[in-house]
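okkk here we go again. third time trying to get the flavin mononucleotide bound version out, last two times i messed up the smiles copy paste (missing a bracket lol). double checked this time i swear
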Amino acid sequence: MPISLATSFTSLDFVNPFVLASAPPTESKRKILKAFEAGWGGVVTKTIGLHPVENVAGPKTIYQRASEEKPYVSRTKRPDTVSHSSWNWELISDQPLELWLPDLEEIKSTYPDRMLIGSIMAGAGGAEEMANWQKLARACVDAGCDALELNMSCPHMDRKDMGAHIANDEDIIRGILKAVTEAVDVPIWVKLTPATSTLVDAAGAAYAAGASAISLCNTFPSLPLMDPETMKFEVEVDGYVTSGGQGGLAILNQALQRVSDISRAYPDQAISGIGGIKGFHEAFNFIVHGAGNLQVCTAAMEEKGSGGVGVKLIQELCSDLGAYLERKGMSSIEDFRGIARERIVEHSKIRRKSDAYNGGYQAEAPVDQTAV
Ligand SMILES: Cc1cc2nc3c(=O)[nH]c(=O)nc-3n(C[C@H](O)[C@H](O)[C@H](O)COP(=O)(O)O)c2cc1C
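finally!!
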């Protein structure tokens, strides 16, 4: 049986399902061209906005590693450690839209067979902000982007009408999608934050309002660790930190749960899986929960000698997926996509040691203590 790594996702043809996520690996023309040369099927650009960006006066990203020795998880370099996670408080792209546009044109004309997805973000405080979404959308599409990813998930915004804050508000989600779908005619992916209890509803609102896919997850809001000896945070500016985002292997299981929740609620809709993908095993796990597209950030950034775009990683992902399909007699990821959906059930459906499962309730009505 001929095997194919090619996938169709939101009506776009990908040479393989592996995409660099919106982040430092996709922050410049130079890096994106290098990524395409290495073999990535697509990239989502670092998020482009219209608001001025000034990053913190210190490291924007740290990499935490785990070891059996103390300290267990730390950014401190030690022998015999493995990657645990990234932690960052980096804002969206500081390259203005005007400089991005000629870069996007050149990238698309150099690699017409690779998918270029423009990540954009504006506010939601009124008509002017909706016009900003439209301006960004039109400009990126005119410059050659095949699709857009709307960033409704940046965890670093104080503004309550931007980033992760708006993923809790279905009216705002609908409003932004209305503005963007009126402005352009390309597939619209919506990147949501995992940090909301209303994720499935937010995804439903986005799909109903015209989103072609949900991208999930952005980083999980989190704090860096404090070193007990120095009593300093492992990353800080003038002794202060604020909530940042965790990515990498440490978020894999949580990201899978979120993707599964959405995929089971909307099995006919597209979902792009992100969070902790380091190789084929993690990618496989997103696909079985329904993801038709995989995005990678931390593992690409961590790869030494690749300029932070995961040159070896994309080669391994493609060859390991190809070898797997061949070994299993499958022709594409569609042969196993979503197979886990029906095996995620409610607690009460899992066999118990004894017959009864009371779901946390007492089996009998509690004794009325006042009657004693
Ligand atoms: C340093 C850094 C910067 C990021 N910047 C953005 C961004 O501008 N827009 C966005 O949508 N996601 C951004 N992300 C989130 C990633 O795209 C991705 O969703 C997240 O890191 C989880 O994937 P991973 O576990 O492969 O790292 C950033 C992540 C990191 C580590």
